[in-house]
Amino acid sequence: MSAATDHPLTEVFGHTPDLPWPFLQAVAALADAPLTDIAERLREAISPYLATSALVIFTEECTGRPRKKAGEEEIISRVSIAELDALRSALSDEESFFGEAELAGRPRPVLALIHTSSRALLVLTDPRSVDPKREVGMDVVSYLWRIAAQRIHEKVADAPPSFLLESRAASAERVRVTAELTDLHSTTLETLLAALRSSSLDDAAARSTVTDLTAKALIGIRTLSDRTTDLIEQPVATTFERLREDLRPLTRFSGIKVEFVEPPLNGRALPGEVAHAARAIVRGLVLAMVEQPDVSRVRIHWDCDGENLLINVRDDGGGALAADSPNISRLDRRVQALTGHLQIDVMPGWGADVFVTLPLDLPARPAGDVAEWNLAARELEVLQHLVSGERNRTIASLLGISENTVKFHVRNLFKKLDVGSRTEAIALAHSNGLR
């Protein structure tokens, strides 16, 4: 006798139809996946239809850092930002690519798909159909990828402070490493050029050929350095123009006038995470404002004082924007994740004035030592999971303890660290080097 037959609801709703439960369960797991697991979940969901050696997701949120990946270690540990950026640049919206591309240091068969709204890139290496007789494989892969890309977009909007702070530190490290490599290889190639051009070498044909090849290699290295810098930093004017493009549909169809006050053209370049977050924060503010009644105009003003990006967004509504609304609270968390500050002045009858300050540099690391907090071993484990962005239920599962026990440890952490929230605890742990 089946469970469905015994269930009292069967009499009301009838028997469960013959649904593709494995596929639906894979979709549910993907839709509920945290950022750290989403690549693995997507690969698992795709595997019944398309076999791959590795899966890599490339997004703009963390300046293109390929953090979301699953599969063969040889591929996912060597795939580079420049390779993914070059592949994405070659694709247009709503386009897929199947062929050979440079990935993880050598040409490989790949299947690449672009997500239209976010420009996120999915790359599958060595793709092969599990069942060549099936014709639904590509449709299913595209469908699952759309779910994953949307999930990533939503999760990044509420990313924990550790996620964004770690990404900014990684960006700075990439600049340093790229500069060192550029100097090293530039010196090597320039020395080689000088030797090959020497009059003591009588094989003119060989010298000419090698000189040309070396010059091209030198240009390639310079181009790589420029491309990496472009990923890490964006001119403030370029970011503001992208914001204007983001809001163009709203200005065209809503009937609401959106005024843009341009930032100075010579303003300091923005770190990638700041540029992306600033656009997202302003978009969220504008959407919250236009949902109010009697709003006909929104004014957006950006400026840069050399140390901070200064944002001002103002509407002409009735002053109904609530500072404690869920939308504004979510935006405020994102501002805090970048160690910024958001202030709202609501003027009844005159509208709302929002000021956002986003620092362009990582905060200086204060003096301190994790050992001085006198944390028990379990408390330190819980804190490390908090820094990774895990919630209480997930921490309980990972540590094999109850959720109430996790809450008990979190309360003790707050007391020992002298903080009042998870955000403050994460920020303090990060500032002391805890990852």
Automatic annotation (TrEMBL):
SMART domains linked: HTH_LUXR
Domain HTH luxR-type: start-end pairs: 369-433
Gene3D superfamilies from the UniProt entry: Histidine kinase-like ATPase, C-terminal domain, Winged helix-like DNA-binding domain superfamily/Winged helix DNA-binding domain
Keywords of the record: DNA-binding, Transcription, Transcription regulation
GO terms, biological process: regulation of DNA-templated transcription
Molecular-function GO term, any one: DNA binding
Protein name: LuxR family transcriptional regulator
Species, as recorded: Arthrobacter cheniae
Upper classification of the organism: Bacteria, Bacillati, Actinomycetota, Actinomycetes, Micrococcales
